[in-house]
Amino acid sequence: MSDTLVRHWTMLTLIPRAPRRIGTVALQARLAARGVAIDLRTVQRDLNRLSRVFPLLCDGRGRSFGWSWSGDSEPFGVSGTAPSDALPLLMRREGLPPILPPPVEAALAPHVQRAGEVVRGGGDPRLLAWSDKVRSLAPGPARLAPRVDPAVRQVVLRGLFEDRWLEVDYRARNADRPRTHTVCPLGLVVRGRAEHLVVRDTGEPWQLLLHRCTAARLLDLRFERPDDFDLDTHIAAGNLGYRLDPSPIDLVLRLAPEIAPAVIEAPLSIGQRVTTEPDGQVRVEARVMETMELFGWLLSQGALLEVVAPAALRAWVAETAEAVARRHRPS
Question: Is there a contact between 271 and 286 (Cβ–Cβ < 8 Å)?
Answer without folding.
Answer: yes
